[in-house]
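Project outcomes to date are best conveyed with an example. Our students and postdoctoral researchers have been running inverse folding experiments weekly, and each run begins with a structure described purely in tokens. The record below, which covers 224 residues, was selected by the lab manager from last quarter's runs and is presented without edits.
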């Protein structure tokens, strides 16, 4: 049985679900947040130590401003209402990406990270304004600035995921089969599962089914 220490998820399909069932993309984003809560609880039940959620990419700035504002408002409300609860549950929150948001959201993100920084039950890495290509370029720039040797070890320690193990498993919902500039270096040997369901429809049963399938895979890492 394969050990499972880190699950990464591309939460795709919120807008499409909202349009299909509620005639509103924003309704889909709101429903998607409920799915996040369920998956966090189930991740803890499965004793998985790291959960990385792709919430907003560097490319998502191309979306309509009203939708972006709604997304960030949802996040602000979540942080205001749930940071204390996350802390009580011994959950750590870490942000991956560039914090170039409103002063209010930046402040809330910093407060949540600081308050939960020493928690150990589960680490949630929230990828916001994140793009893997930019992350890699910035890592190479740091190596060059430090006049260090270019190596896998030096590159990894200059990524935003420094001290975070690479994902064992990547799940992408929404019936789309691509990585979308997400953790391109870190996913080199991850098992990848593409799920047809849109993110708000993804449930605990679906999650556990994928986990069981992952555990049954023979992982060779280049060996026989």
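After processing, the design step wrote out the following sequence:
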């Amino acid at each position: 049985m394969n050990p499972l220490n880190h699950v990464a998820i591309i939460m795709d399909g919120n807008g499409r679900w909202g349009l299909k069932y509620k005639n509103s993309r924003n309704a889909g984003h709101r429903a998607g947040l409920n799915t996040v809560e369920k998956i966090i609880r189930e991740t803890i039940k499965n004793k998985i130590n790291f959960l990385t959620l792709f919430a907003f990419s560097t490319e998502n700035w191309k979306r309509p401003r009203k939708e972006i504002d709604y997304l960030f408002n949802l996040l602000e409300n979540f942080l205001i209402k749930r940071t204390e609860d996350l802390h009580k549950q011994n959950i750590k929150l870490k942000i991956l990406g560039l914090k170039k948001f409103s002063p209010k959201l930046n402040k809330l993100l910093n407060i949540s990270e600081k308050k939960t920084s020493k928690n150990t039950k589960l680490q949630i890495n929230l990828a916001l304004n994140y793009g893997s290509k930019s992350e890699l370029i910035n890592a190479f720039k740091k190596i060059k600035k430090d006049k260090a040797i270019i190596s896998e070890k030096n590159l990894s320690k200059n990524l935003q995921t420094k001290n975070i193990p690479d994902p064992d498993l990547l799940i992408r919902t929404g019936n789309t089969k691509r990585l979308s500039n997400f953790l391109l270096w870190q996913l080199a040997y991850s098992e990848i599962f593409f799920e047809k369901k849109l993110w708000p429809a993804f449930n605990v049963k679906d999650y556990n089914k994928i986990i069981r399938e992952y555990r049954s895979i023979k992982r060779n890492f280049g060996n026989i």
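The radius of gyration is 17 Å. The first helix runs from residue 14 to 22. The training component of this project remains on track.
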